[in-house]
Design a protein that fits this description.
6-stranded mixed sheet; TIM Barrel; alpha/beta
Length: about 525
């Protein structure tokens, strides 16, 4: 029997309720109460941890991210600091020089919005060719929805002046009518396959690095979309199932399983839906409707204020999307759909309503839910549609959203407090590696609505700031609700999983500006201490 008593602590139970101590037995919370009560229950054989007044919260549960890619980003070419395409070329050449024998370059890390003002342009095949013409070069934008590739990849894909159409994607053409090497959505997803694929051992290494970082920052569950995103699902499944069968993975894992057509949907339902291996399980079907705001591939009803010709990319035809949603629902499967633009949100939630009515008993979810108007938000509440927010997006998006979609629409978007006050089930995640998967940085953005430099001073649209307790609940209880596990997960109460985090500072009383810098001193998953500072 495993027993642990945490005492002399500030234990967050639920909004307005705190306790002093916790007893866990064999991975379950046995009791919560005063220090005296818990120590008397613990017995001689329990490990007793004096928390010295530190704060304990439920383990953070990221409701949408890509943890395999987090591990990949830790080992691959990093272009996040580049201020121009020329910087990218130099970094790529240096990376090849430092890694003799590499078979290809894959990265998802640059951001043209961060380029020097006089050097803002998108890379193309000529820039990628300047890095190498001998190996595949794939330079993905940080958002994961567009990329520049070299001529070798274009050739492998069979793209040329006469063949440049990919359903659900866009192949940009140059003035000569040839593909210029810049790809959006399904086109860039296909291009990834031209880069040599990882092995099962590679995937295990990436997962190991990323999960270590995650638990060190207080994450105890990842709801992750790795299945079919950057590696064949057989590789992903083999790596995960090996790690969870032998107990080497330190956290819980829920697979958001990517399905982009009916064939993949049928395979998922037949092969994986509902399966569990240790602390991992195959969860909802993950679909894509549009792209990203940064890449202007999110679907916008009235187009982009700073580019009227752009309306975004529709990743899947409405008829196929509706058929897949109905198919999943007929088989009892929850659907989670990536929707960033108001056009994607509007279409998708109406399809959910058509399939599920106002009850939405399968808890279909919209991931991101960024650009909205109040009529859409009311529709979401009326039809009990779940939302998975990434508040940390604001630290970048607050600088571009008004230029992309105009002031009035921007003020109705990223509406965290409105959604909470209306009773919408809204969970929090990071979409990492698009942003850091550090939960405390995410909570900081939800509470302050400022970037990491503390700007703007009053917060961007501060009426939508939430309090710390609401943010913690969204990151714990609401993420568990999205999994149908709100009765056993996301709270520190008897009968709940012993997934918890001891923090080095009290986030409920400290200056909100300090929240992003708070760190765990201990993380527990399933009653086991997986990180201790």
């Amino acid at each position: 029997m495993s027993k642990t008593a945490f005492y002399n602590a500030k234990v967050y139970v639920e909004k307005g309720v705190f306790a002093e101590a916790i007893l866990q037995e064999d991975g379950w919370i046995k009791a919560v109460g005063t220090t005296g009560e818990i120590l008397s229950l613990a017995g001689y054989d329990a490990e007793k941890i004096d928390c010295g007044g530190k704060t304990i919260v439920p383990g953070f549960n990221d409701s949408h991210m890509h943890i395999l890619q987090v591990g990949m980003a830790m080992t691959q070419l990093d272009l996040s600091g580049c201020k121009s395409v020329e910087d990218m070329i130099a970094a790529g050449r240096q990376y090849i020089a430092d890694h003799p024998g590499i078979q290809g370059i894959f990265t998802q890390s640059w951001n043209d919005d961060m380029f020097d003002p006089d050097k803002k342009r998108l890379p193309d095949k000529h820039d990628c060719d300047a890095i190498s013409t001998e190996i595949p070069v794939f330079l993905g934008r940080i958002c994961g929805h567009s990329a520049a590739v070299n001529s070798l990849i274009l050739k492998k894909m069979g793209l040329d002046k006469d063949h440049h159409t990919i359903e659900g994607g866009e192949v940009v053409l140059g003035e000569d009518g040839e593909p210029n090497g810049y790809l959006f959505e399904a086109a860039q997803a296909e291009a990834r396959l031209a880069v040599p694929q990882m092995t099962v051992e590679d995937a295990k290494m990436y997962y190991g690095k990323a999960m270590k970082y995650a638990v060190e920052h207080g994450m105890t569950t990842t709801q992750s979309n790795d299945y079919t995103t950057v590696a064949p699902k057989q590789i992903v499944k083999a790596a995960l199932e090996d790690m969870y069968a032998d107990g080497t993975a330190p956290m819980r894992y829920v697979a958001q399983c990517g399905c982009e057509n009916m064939k993949q949907a049928e395979e998922f339902v037949a092969e994986d839906w509902g399966r569990k291996v240790g602390l991992m399980e195959y969860g909802p079907a993950k679909m894509f409707k549009d792209g990203s705001l940064g890449a202007r591939s999110a679907m916008m009803i009235h187009g982009y204020a700073d580019d009227p010709n752009a309306k975004g990319v529709d990743r899947i035809a409405d008829s196929e999307q509706m058929a897949m949603i109905q198919y999943f629902q007929d088989h009892g499967v929850t659907v989670a759909t990536h929707c960033i633009g108001d056009g994607a949100i509007d279409v998708t939630q109406k399809m959910y309503a058509k399939a599920a009515g106002t009850e939405n008993k399968y808890r279909h979810n919209i991931i991101h839910y960024q650009i909205t108007d109040m009529d859409m938000v009311k529709f979401t509440r009326e039809h009990n549609i779940l939302v998975s927010y990434q508040p940390v997006f604001l630290q970048y998006d607050l600088h571009i959203v008004e230029s992309r979609c105009g002031h009035d629409l921007a003020m109705q978007s990223y509406c965290f407090k409105t959604a909470h006050d209306m009773g919408i089930h809204a969970s929090y995640g990071t979409d990492s590696p698009v942003e850091d998967c550090n939960p405390l940085a995410n909570i900081y953005c939800a509470v302050t609505r400022k970037d990491f430099k503390g700007q703007p001073l009053e917060g961007w649209n501060p009426a939508e700031c939430v309090d710390v307790e609401t943010a913690v609940d969204a990151y714990t209880y609401e993420s568990a609700y999205a999994e149908f596990k709100e009765g056993v997960k996301g709270r520190i109460k008897p009968g709940f999983y012993a997934d918890l985090v001891v923090l080095d500072k009290d986030i409920f009383t400290c200056d909100p500006m300090e929240i992003k810098d708070v760190l765990p001193v201990l993380t527990m998953v399933d009653g086991k201490i997986v990180y201790r500072k």
